[in-house]
Structure formats: C-alpha cells, structure tokens
C-alpha cells in the first residue's frame, strides 16, 4: 500500500490538533471547577448562552468575532486561540517525529500525552494545582499505549510496558524523594505534625527505605502493610522519618560497603517510593474526589492543616505520567530540562526584579516536550560529555 504523502499527514495532524485544542480549553475551564466535561454543552462563561457550531471553529471563530461573544459581546480570552494553535502545531510536530506509519497507535498516544501536558500546565498557571483527573488517568494511558504499541527503547522507539512502568515509578519516585527530603529539611528534621492516614508520606518514606535493600515490590508491600495497620487502629501509627528517611540516606551512603550496587539501590528506592506515591495519590483522589464530595465534605475538612511541602504532589503524579509515556531516560531528561528551564527563567526574573510565581508543573511539561522530540539527541550529547 502506498504511504500517504508527508504534507497531507502533517496537515491532517494540524487540523486534528486544532480540534483537540478546542476541547483542551474545555478541560482547562471545567476541571478546576469540578464541572462535567461533557454536560452542559459549550456555552459562554459570561452569559451562559449555548454556543452554536459556527462559534466553535478553532481560531477562526475567535478571529471572526473579534475576540468577543456573539451574544453578549463579552471579551473572550486570547488564551483560547493560543491553546488551539499550540495544540495544532504540536500535533503536527509529533506526526513528523513519530510518523503514524511507523509508530501506529504510539503516535496517537503521544498526541494525547501532549494534551495532558498542555491542559495541566494551563490549569497549574491558573490555580497552582494539577488535577488528578489528568495525571492519574495519564499514567494508565501511558502504560496502556506502551502495552499496545511500544516497540522498545533499545530500538530507538517508544517504551514497552516494562520500560513504561519503570519510567512511571522512577519519575514519581524521584520527585517524591525530593519532596520528602526537602520537606524534612523545611521542618528542621522534626516529625510531621499532620501525618496522613491511612496512607501518605510516612508510608512512602518507608517504601523508600525498604526498596533500597529489598526492591520495589517489598517496599510497596511494607507501605501497604503500614497503611493497613493505620486503618485497623483507626489512627496514625507513626513511622519515624528519622528511621525511614535517615535510614534511606544512610543506606545509600553505606550500601557499597555491603557489596550492593549503589545505582541498583537508588533505582529500587525511587521505584518503590514512586509506587507507594501513586497508590497514595489514587487513594486520596478517590477519597476526596468522589467519596467526600458526594457525602458533602465541608470546606473546613478540605482545608485541613498540613505540613510544609517542598514540592506539590501534583508534580509527582505528572512525573509518573511522563515516565509512563517516555520511559526512564525520557522522564530523567524531562526533569533535567525542567530544572534547566526553571533556572534560566529564574535568572531572567531576578535580573528584571520580577516575582517568580510559576509552579514546577509547566516546567515539567516543557521538559517532557523536549524529551519527547529531542530526548535521544540530549542523551547522546550527555554521553559525549561523559566520554561514554
């Protein structure tokens, strides 16, 4: 069968991206407000008038209306066409770097992955949160597409299921470990005043320690056992962080003296912590996203006091989704590029004496795009620096 010409594929991807970009605007507006993304149909946020199909043509409708609502003439944010254009261009780039004829469903998976990154970044810019409705299903989608379409990183393709799972756990575990240790330092090495129950940071720290010695499965098992003890006791049975975090750091420092491979210990610790973090995130999403809201949880319950945190839990789950789509090397490149982008912007803002109010999520998304499109080149460049 003759392959479709490249210009046709890129143009089709551009149009598809523009249409998905219109839906992305719906996600950006409705998810933070807890609204359904399917009902009611699209409407003006100012006058609530239902929008006709002619009002929903990506970019062109906004331009033809002069950036104002057809019915009440209220201004429509420029972000709507900007998001649509970004989505269309990105979809075309993905089709160019990952031709559908070669990658099949993997191309579609990366397009949906970009939509998660774009919507999550825009919401993070608005609300300083990244909805679980994007990140946790994103982890599942990444693993699902890897199982269906992964061709293996060793062949320069997309990750297979095992590589995607390792990427998800490593990504979540790395940012979770940064948060655990950073938060411990912020508390001046004091124990948490408001520990989670039945599962949370203490169980993740326990998984970090156990996984360094026994592997991710044993670490996750220890975390779940601790959570079961909390649930059975109906209170927090503390697991001291001096033991878990201090023990993990000491283990990684001294493990080589016991004949252990330090890289294997680090990898195991991160993946165990990542597994426990994603399980904890899923539990709290179900608990607060469904159960308590349906039961009419009060604002006081939702705004309960918490300990200082070095990093948002949403970033941890977003890193898990990035790893699920891009594998271990991809998520490491993503985090490295995110830190670099944050540092550059931070220097610029310091020079301009401007306040940096951006969360880490948008930087992570930028890093993920870099890893998705140019990750192999970055890895080869880095290996060249090390003389490998």
Automatic annotation (TrEMBL):
It comes from Deinococcus piscis. The chain crosses the membrane at residues 6-29, 80-98, 104-123, 135-158, 164-186, 206-227, 239-256, 263-286, 318-348, 360-382. It is a multi-pass membrane protein. The keyword Secreted does not apply. Keywords: Cell membrane, Membrane, Transmembrane, Transmembrane helix. It is found in: Cell membrane. Its main location: membrane. This is Prepilin peptidase. Belongs to the peptidase A24 family. PANTHER family: PREPILIN LEADER PEPTIDASE_N-METHYLTRANSFERASE-RELATED, TYPE 4 PREPILIN-LIKE PROTEINS LEADER PEPTIDE-PROCESSING ENZYME. The lineage of its organism: Bacteria, Thermotogati, Deinococcota, Deinococci, Deinococcales. Residues 111-229, 238-347 form the Prepilin type IV endopeptidase peptidase domain. Residues 15-96 form the Prepilin peptidase A24 N-terminal domain. InterPro entries: Prepilin_IV_endopep_pep (IPR000045), Prepilin_pept_A24_N (IPR010627), Prepilin_peptidase/N-MTase (IPR050882).
